[in-house]
Amino acid sequence: MKKITLLSMMILSSFGIAMESSIDSKKPCISSEGDPYIIDFVSGIFSKLKLECETIDAYKIAEAVNEFDILAPTQPTTPGTAVTFSGSNQMLEPSIVALSTTKFVVAYRSSAAGIPGEAVVGTLSGNSITFGSSTQFAATVGGTHTAISAISATQFIVAFEDERGASDVGEMRIGTVSGSSISFGSSFDFASGDVDAIEMEALSSTNHIVVYRDVEDSNNGKAKVITVSGATLSFGAASTFLTAPTIWTGLDELSSSTFVVAYQTSTTGAEGGAVIGSVSGTTITFGSANVFETNCVQVDVVAISPTKFVVAYDDNDDGNGYVQVGSVSGTTITGYGTRQQLITAVNAIRLAPSVTDKFIAMYIPASGTDPTYAREGEVTGTDITLSAQTTIHSGNSDNQAMEVIEIDDGKHIYIYQDESNSSIGTAIYGEASAPAPDTDPPVVTSISLVGTPAINAASIQYTVSFDENANNISTDDFSLTTTSGTASGTISSVNTSSGTSVTVTINTITGTGGIRLDLNGSTNIADDLANSGPAAFNTGDIHTVDRDAPTGYSVAINQSPINAGNDNAVSYTFSSAEAGATYNYTFSTSGGAGTVTGSGTVASAGATISGIDLTGLADGTITLSVTLTDVNGNTGSAATDTETKETVAPTGYSVIINQSPINAGN
Hints:
Layout: H1 6-13, E1 19-21, E2 28-30, H2 36-48, H3 58-68, E3 83-84, E4 91-98, E5 103-110, E6 117-125, E7 128-131, E8 135-138, E9 147-150, E10 155-162, E11 169-178, E12 181-191, E13 195-202, E14 207-214, E15 220-229, E16 232-235, E17 239-242, E18 246-253, E19 258-265, E20 271-280, E21 283-286, E22 290-293, E23 296-305, E24 308-315, E25 321-329, E26 332-336, E27 340-343, E28 346-353, E29 358-365, E30 372-380, E31 383-386, E32 390-393, E33 402-408, E34 411-418, E35 424-431, E36 444-449, E37 460-470, E38 478-485, E39 488-494, E40 499-510, E41 512-519, E42 542-546, E43 554-557, E44 562-563, E45 570-575, E46 582-589, E47 595-601, E48 608-612, E49 620-629, E50 639-646
Parallel strand pairs: 44-50
Antiparallel strand pairs: 1-2, 3-35, 4-5, 5-6, 6-7, 6-8, 9-10, 10-11, 11-12, 13-14, 14-15, 15-16, 15-17, 18-19, 19-20, 20-21, 20-22, 23-24, 24-25, 25-26, 25-27, 28-29, 29-30, 30-31, 30-32, 33-34, 34-35, 36-37, 37-40, 38-41, 39-40, 41-42, 43-45, 45-48, 46-47, 46-49, 49-50
Helix pairs in contact: 1-3
């Protein structure tokens, strides 16, 4: 009989599954007792890892599980207490968005007089939710028409149909949150007529997407880019993603420039499909729609990654609720995985992200009472594994009055209508899978020059940025690499030993060429969880260096001596000068005070500088001193030459002719 280690039993018992022998008492097998969802999950692991019953071994299981990164989805829990937020009025068609890990906003249609649109701030502290007072954003809104997306931790956009009688319009307003209060700015019309099935999603703080059914244009499905600029909203041209009556929509962001729309149309039965949109500026380009079910209702979608999403729907043929993975390449949906049954006889389904590769499905059954349930699903490839079911609300709920969002990794806010309490809007905090343990060290994301240092700077600084808080940072973690020439320097200091970014100073820079600051490998830099040893980084900014001054040049005064006939047009000539450098000369005299100076650009290595007037200098020894400064500001040592200047004629002398007279004999 194959040995089953104690660790094997411990691993399986952690899933709540017992071990027992088979009929022949020789092959250990999984007990049929326990949670059927967990048993299905673990059985699936054994099948995927090709672990037959007789070869169960703890170390093999652990090794295979680690290799394939298979983690069971977690049955959601609701450790918080349900809290109401719509006063004494019914809450319908809610939309919810997280502004931070502790704050969210719910927008909804109220049953108060006039059927206004209202929004309220929720604050999460531990497991508890508190709400501020609701604020009206529209006096009358249409049914199933409210959507919301976050701009920042204090601002959001709400989209709705403003019912103005014959002039209904699709409208948006920016809401600003202060504490638990909301104030709304001006109204902006995104559609000129009747709209329905509005969904909205943020691609960034300034770019958002709205999708909707354009009732005025044959109920076609359309989308627009929303641009946020301060307190103003503007809109790109409408792009049609479905030329058919669009009954229901779901929307989620795949990346900062792509998104997925799930829809239900009435063209052929109640066909459910999805389409990928790509954003460039304010223009949206759609790929081809891809149908996932020919007869369904209550569709929703959640992105799992930039190339994967999950759709949920109620299959009209059998009445059951399903979830299914869609795969994406560019703007093409390349196919769908095998659908996974969520529940029999479903009434409504809503989806939200959870931790990596996981999602939450919130749903209401269609049989008997209408309680609210949730499960966590995990996506592996194109397969979905579902957790056990959790009851969110045991009383009746409305299928048009439920939503769920992820407010932090594995943490969610569930919104539902409590029909046992006058259909008032209610919220409760829930948890699912905890994030995977962080075992990764900090990662350097960039090493960038501070400012634009001069090419001849003797000292420069680099900013080193990490993807998380890093500790134990010191100068010996870095190297200064010469990328070209003879440039070099010294790493002199790091401004702090911890942080998400540090400033490293380089001093005593010499030579000519390029230098780059690199992070060494295998350092003791660690994150707050003591994960150490970030990977080396050597793709930072290169600083170009020219610290070498001109050398080897000389000068010679061309006049010898300097006298009254030439002292107003003196010249000198270079030897081995650096062409393009700036010369600065000074003439001085030993005969007294005063100098003559000048400057210019060296035209050639043997250039002559002429036309220099030295008439103002006293006679004596004339000294010429010349420096050259290159184009990068490096100044060489002075080259010198001397010459005598004498401009005063001799006086006080006389002459006598020695022959008197001068005759033929002399």
